[in-house]
């Protein structure tokens, strides 16, 4: 499938998105998704491959990569990341994830440039009671991710831990198939928060 979208926000200005997705690319239910994001101060290319029943029937192998460029007023940042992990379903509502990621970033401000290399180890636990991942009409979703990071910035060692929480709730406005009222929050992507990037680089 192919799709597109457009939007505007006070953070990114005007933005657009193009995506291509194949839900059975190798004949075993493997899902490949690529996304191109274009905004006034941020551009990104993303790719994700999900392989179900990996070694065990209740496990999914997830491989993802992205390349980004951000140009806010204070600095310019170019980065790339790779992530590999295993998602395991513990029950109908609970799912866990463990993985390893590599993140490389170069940040420029004026005449100064800094380069960071990080290895991350994300662990995530999610609870989903909606019963429908594509078109939820009721229920809740909650996620908690603990990510440990270690690496270097311009040759200096650094290490830190981040905790990411997400949640959403859905309930119908009335009977029938009406769209639900919902509060949405994106799944953690395990990239370093921009605030931490600024603290590290001195921006």
What is the gist of this entry?
This protein is mainly beta and 203 residues long.
List the helices and strands and how they pair.
Layout: E1 2-9, E2 13-22, E3 31-39, E4 42-52, E5 59-70, E6 76-89, E7 94-109, E8 112-128, E9 139-153, E10 156-172, E11 180-183, H1 194-201
Antiparallel strand pairs: 1-2, 2-3, 3-4, 4-5, 5-6, 6-7, 7-8, 8-9, 9-10, 10-11
Feature tags:
66% strand; 203 residues; single chain; disordered C terminus; eleven-stranded antiparallel beta sheet; mainly beta
Low-confidence segments, ≥5 residues, pLDDT <50? 180-203
Shape: globular
Overall radius of gyration:
19 Å
* Beta-strand percentage range: over 45%
Q: Please trace the helix and strand order, writing H or E for each element.
A: EEEEEEEEEEEH
Rounded mean pLDDT score: 86
Q: Strand arrangement, largest sheet? A: 1-2-3-4-5-6-7-8-9-10-11
Q: Helix coverage percent of residues?
A: under 10%
- Number of DSSP helical runs: 1
**DSSP strand tally:** 11
Largest sheet: 11 strands, antiparallel
Terminal-residue CA separation = 40 Å
Q: What structural class do you assign from the helix and strand content?
A: mainly beta
Notes on the structure:
By secondary structure, the chain is mainly β. Helices cover 4% and strands 66% of the residues. It has one helix and eleven strands. The chain has one helix at 194-201, and strands spanning 2-9, 13-22, 31-39, 42-52, 59-70, 76-89, 94-109, 112-128, 139-153, 156-172, 180-183. The chain has an eleven-stranded antiparallel beta sheet with strand order 1-2-3-4-5-6-7-8-9-10-11, with no helix packed on it. Strand 7 and strand 8 (112-128) form a beta hairpin. The radius of gyration is 19 Å and the shape is globular. The termini are far apart.
